[in-house]
Amino acid sequence: MATQLPTTDIRIGADMIRRRKGGTPIVCLTAYTYPIARLLDPHVDLLLVGDSVAMVLHGHGTTLGASLEMMIAHGQAVMRGSARACVVVDMPAGTYEDSAARAVASARRIIGETGCQAVKLEGGVDVAVQIAAIVAAGIPVMGHIGLQPQSVEKDGGYKIKGRTDENIAALLADALAVEQAGAFSLVIEGTIETVAADITHRIAIPAIGIGASSECDGQILVIDDMVGLTVDRVPKFVKQYADLRSVIAHAAERYALEVRDREFPGRAHVFSKTSGGDEA
């Protein structure tokens, strides 16, 4: 039987996530909208407003289409729909890499305009200075190593990490750099299972897996992938727990048929002088 965590009225913070290292696995999903956040909030520990929103909801080919304004708008929506989960907002490409000062300014804007609990950025050794600066400014940071979607053009595609000794050593160095810079957790994405498991056991902060290992301290999936809403290619590491594509397509088909046959709207869906109340 699955472990049932107690419900709480207290918002989960970054420190609470950090203390879950090695304990009950941390449940994480992405969320981009108010209604989805409301539905997911009772069941998860962490909601990530991922820059995957650029692809999932806005139709961009990569996450590089995300802007700071886009992330803030979706972060605000998720915060309105969430009362319990730790909400983390991705820092989009181009908002932190250039300098620590710019990274801090971007992180402050995200936190200030959304009220979220933390920000997330991609990279390891190369962004350790930025992570340390954001943490020093009092803002919790989640790291992200392994397959980094913001580097897809540089990497020539979505390439699995951890296949060579050199790359394995680089991944461990990235994980340790993120930890030492003060991050409260990190995501390991698209990495050979044994490598992700080894990194998880070597660091003192929670590792959240996506296409990584069941030995990670938690797991995250893109919500649209998980519920079968993705209209394009679904990654191999995704398990679909529902098929909402078929549900929505079937509902739209029935609606179109009833409208064309003048079955909808029926008597129950229109107003008359004798119908009670003034509310629609």
Any chance you could write out the topology, listing elements then pairs?
Elements (H helix, E strand, L loop, with lengths): L13 H5 L7 E5 L3 H7 L5 E4 L3 H4 L11 H14 L4 E5 L9 H15 L3 E3 L7 H9 L4 E6 L5 H4 L9 H16 L4 E5 L3 H10 L4 E4 L7 E4 L1 H4 L17 H17 L20
Parallel strand pairs: 1-2, 1-8, 2-3, 3-4, 4-5, 5-6, 6-7, 7-8
Question: Would you kindly provide a written description of the structure presented here, covering whatever features stand out?
Answer:
The structure is a single chain. With 280 residues, the chain is α/β, with parallel strands linked by helices. The chain contains eleven helices and eight strands. Helix 6 (128-136) links the parallel strand 4 (118-120) and strand 5. Helix 4 (68-81) runs parallel beside helix 5 (100-114) and helix 5 crosses helix 6 (128-136). The protein is globular, with a radius of gyration of 21 Å.
In brief:
This protein is of the alpha/beta class and 280 residues long.
SS field, number of helical segments: 11
CATH superfamily: Phosphoenolpyruvate-binding domains
In helices, the fraction of residues equals 25-40%
The stretches of 5 or more residues where confidence is low (pLDDT under 50) are 1-6
Task: Write down the overall geometry.
Answer: globular
Features:
11 helices; alpha/beta; 8-stranded parallel β-barrel; single chain; disordered N terminus; 38% helix; TIM Barrel; globular; 280 residues
